[in-house]
Structure formats: C-alpha cells, structure tokens
Amino acid sequence: MSDAVNRAWTMASRPEGEPTAENFAIKESTIPEPKHGEILIRTLYLSLDPYMRGRMRGGPSYAATLEIGDVMTGEVVARVEKSESPLFKVGDTVRSSIGWQEWAAIPAHTAKSVNPELGPVSTGVGVLGMPGMTAYFGLLEVLKPRAGDTLVVSAASGAVGAVVGQIGKINGCFVIGVAGSDEKCDYTVNELGFDAAINYKTQDVSAELARLSPNGVDCYFDNVGGPVSDAVFENLALKSRVAICGQISQYNAATPPQGPRNMAALIRTRTTVEGFLVYDFELQHEVARARIADWIKDGRIKYKEDVVDGFQNAPEAFIGLLNGKNFGKLLIKVSE
Ligand code: NAP
Ligand code: FER
C-alpha cells in the first residue's frame, strides 16, 4: 500500500438479496491536507455492522441512504496524523464516521475521542462503542429486566448479544442465548456465563425454550427476527417485553419482510413490543461507557473481536457478517 494514496470502498451497485463483491468498488484519491480547524486521521480499525446493509437498500430511514458511487457508511477508530486544531494533537486516537476509508481530513469538533486507558482502542467501536451502547440501553431502558426474569437474546455471541446476556446476568436474570453454531453456544455459556444456549440451526428453539423456561420468557432482546422470533413468541410469559433491536435474518431479503407471523400470541400474554435505536440514548452514552469499562476491569464483562486484516477484505467480511461467519465484533484492521 502506498502511503500517498487514500483508498475508499464505494457502493458500485445496489445489492439484490445477498451482497456480492460486484456491489463494491475501490476509489482512490490523494490524501487530503487538513485545513484550519481540521485534523487528518488515518484509520486503524474499520467497524463493520449489520445496519450498513440497510444503507445500501435505500428507502425510509432515520439516516440518509447511500447513492451509487458513495463511500460506504461506517465508523472508524483512527489516529490523528496532522492537526490544525487545538482540540486534538498528533498521536491522539479518535472515532469518526468517515466511512470505509483509510484517510480523511475532518473538522476536529466532529471527532470523538477514544480513551486508550479504558481498553484497547478497537473497543471504541465495539464493546465500548455503538454495539455496547445498544446492548446497555436496549436491555436496561427498553426491556427493564427484574432479577429472576428469563431473558432470551438472539445473535447471542455477537457484538450486541454477548453484552446483553452478560448485563442480564449482572442484573440477576436467567439468560438464554440463541446462536448459529455449537461453538458460539458453548462460548456464551462457558465463557460469558449465560445459563443456557440454543443452536437455532440444529435444535427446535420453541421446544428448548419451553423446556428451559417452563414459566415463559419475560424479556426478549431480538437481534434477528424471522423463525427464531417466531419460536420465542410461542413461549412468552404474561406481561413480557420484547425489544426490537435488529432483524438481521431479513436484511438480505429481496422481497419486503414477511411477518412477524404470530402476533396473536401477544394478546393472551399482554406483551409489549418496542423498537429502539442506540442513538435515542446518546446523551447517556458516556455513563454507560464508563460502567461497561468498569465491568470489563472487574472481569464481569468479556468481549471477543473478530479482526480481519486488510482494508481490501472489507466487502468479503461484510458479506460474511450477514451470514454468521463472524464470531464476535467484526473489525477490519486497516493500519498499525
Ligand atoms: P453480530 O451479532 O456481531 O453479527 C451478526 C450475527 O447475526 C451473525 O454473526 C449471525 O450469528 C447472526 N445472523 C445472521 N443471519 C442470521 C439469520 N438469518 N438468522 C439468525 N441470525 C442470523 O452483529 P451486531 O453488530 O451485534 O448486531 C446484532 C443486531 O443488532 C443486528 O440485527 C443489528 O442490526 C442490530 N443493531 C441494532 C442497533 C439499534 O440501534 N437498534 C444498533 C446496533 C445493532 P449466528 O451465527 O448466531 O446466526
Ligand atoms: C441497525 C439496524 C437498523 C441500526 C440501525 C437501524 C444503528 C436503523 C434502521 C432504520 O433507520 O430504518 O443495526 O444500527
């Protein structure tokens, strides 16, 4: 890689169904010079997240969607290489939504500082970043679990799910994870301390939930939708709560999503279903970040990162994320 060239991944075409390599194209440009009030940053880690599939689709969203030729949306952890601002000095680590890009000159006030004392800087877009915040607020502010509640979380070994289950344990819940392989299930139970896990690819999720929690599921943190959610809906407890965090099983659907199919199940149980966005709680993120950092130091929260080396590998890794190939928070390591 030449240091004189900045590379960015753009959306070359809109995917129909599962994205393919042809939907992405590299665009090269010269590395910019920061103007007054700007900083030049170099990406260390690019965060790959499921929401990016939605940006490629177009249609209504809380955020602008991508047009053909636009740089792929994304947040990076980056190092300040040049500074024309008193806000940051060379060598500082920041977070910024510059997209899938190696370098950028940005207004310094738009960068968020990453505190290296809280943990490895990669965690700034992982357990201490957007996914960690999502887990914290979706669980504690949307589901509001009580000690003794049964909490089910789907995509349980992933960036969000792993944190949900562990905060559930800290709050005295009986935690059941649902994940797509035995290895991921074993990890949630043996490493993260979940009470049980169900492999939705090989087990009957509804029957397993009925066996593990005969009094029903009080809280369901839904990351996936589709058949896994159908199975959970069959097992809800009276006055249960469902937080709709994500519906990843539907993101590659070529046709509009079908279902949820068994809404009638919610009548008898008087269930509340609530969607949320991590940004709804933005003003409280710093408090959550500090608490999660403390729990990591105390050994009460563990995290796993799936680090793919090389900027050129971003599209392939992203396609894998939508298929369950990642095991832990997916990151691209872009530079040292
Ligand atoms: P992740 O769990 O680290 O990775 C995605 C995982 O989804 C895959 O590893 C795979 O795990 C699972 N998956 C893929 N296809 C599936 C399918 N058809 N059925 C069931 N599971 C499937 O990703 P994450 O970053 O933590 O995100 C998890 C969810 O949270 C996503 O739906 C995302 O959109 C959502 N989210 C929402 C917000 C918000 O503000 N509302 C913020 C962040 C994330 P398995 O191998 O276990 O299938
Ligand atoms: C996500 C899935 C969906 C996410 C945001 C959305 C921040 C928002 C969707 C919309 O605006 O329609 O993982 O993460």
TrEMBL record:
Keywords carried by this UniProt record: Oxidoreductase
Region of interest: Disordered: 1-20
GO molecular function, one term: oxidoreductase activity, acting on the CH-CH group of donors, NAD or NADP as acceptor
Domain Enoyl reductase (ER): 20-332
Alphabetical list of CDD domains matching this protein: PGDH
Stated name of the protein: Zinc-binding dehydrogenase
